Amino acid sequence: MELNELLKNLKIEELNPMQLATLEAYGVDKNLVLLSPTGSGKTLAFLLPLVQRLEAGNDEVQAVILVPSRELALQIETVFKQMGTEFRVMSCYGGRPAMDEHRTMNGIHPQVIVGTPGRMNDHLQKRNFNAKTVKTLVIDEFDKCLEFGFQDEMSEVIGQLPSLKKRVLLSATDAEEIPQFTGVATTEEGKLLKNKVIKLDFSQSDDGSPRLALQTVMSQEKDKLETLYRLLCQLGTQTSLVFVNYRESVERVTGFLQAKKFPCDMFHGGMEQDDRERSLYKFRNGTIPVLISTDLASRGLDIPGIDNVIHYHLPVNEEAFTHRNGRTARWDATGQAYMILGPEEHLPEFVDSETPVYELKEETPKPPKQTWSTIYIGRGKKDKLNKVDVVGFLYKKGRLDRDDVGQVDVKDHYAFVAVKRAKTNQLLKLVAGEKIKGMRTIIEEAM
Questions:
Q1: Do 72 and 280 meet the contact criterion of CB atoms below 8 Å apart?
Q2: Ranges of each domain in the chain
Q3: Axis crossing angle, helix 17-26 with helix 42-52, rounded to the nearest 10
């Protein structure tokens, strides 16, 4: 498939300089290391040349993409499918039965598998797919994979792929050394051999970019909850991602804001996957304007159009600061980042000491009203349910108009739909006991 056709399917008019450079470098018979900021479009940068070099008519797995998290695996799978090629892709990750994934492999025969290192090892050890046919290995968020301690698992995966011809490593920050187990040609000290590896470094356009405006917010109290609440009320319906350093703090901040009737939800690694997915969906579809999270949300989540990043807790280091800020001002958009400082806190060394102060109004506005609510439907793709079925059901049985229905997302076993909040109660009464596509199921508001 031609590049222009791929971009048309993705609804993208042109590529940025980093992506163009990656396309050119990918075609050279060398391994590739790409450094580029979070939000700059690295996923497309490696997927576009990858799919153009897959072998049509070959139903074996031709490429493996290793990622540090389930969320990033799902994001890459989604972007791959949006390209509309003839090739098939699937994601593999922990938290669900490996046997179910094996059945999917046997059913769809993917040419590309995206997965976390541990789950990929599981499939390789059980010989669930032919490792000898894999010619390309991509390691996305390579620095995060190392930070999460996946060295042994990654080494084991790579050791089971005997036919690799191309290795691509992607990261937002430069690693001091690249371990030899990656197979990317290095010296014993982990330095790249220039005659065998192309290194593209676009990392210098991080949050020094004028697209991101950084400001500090001063809190009179050591406990910054009230200051955060006042700031969020002032930002109103703008989408904001609030970062804290601990899971317990996520729950405490969320509980405080919800008690004050501020629409928000939480996201951290201790939550069940279904609950995390529900929170993300509500944030994406506009049901809630604010998501409180640990640094788990600073990597690998494709949440377009975030207006603000708020550092409730100071980031632990410059790298964390960079990745948090990378959630806003993505691509050509602009964004704001706010750092809330308590009376005994100071800006870290890696932040400009002359960062302007954002003044809070004396009178705090009321929390914004929610325009949308999220409806949960207990049937999904495995039940042969699709978006057209869902929308048709809501129009016919729920008596909703086109403007009443927002984003629709159908998963394997359930679906989420954004519905105008003013119509939610009426909708739930009208569809109570009704069948969707001949099936009885749960239809309720996702809380």
A1: no
A2: 3-205, 212-341, 372-445
A3: 30
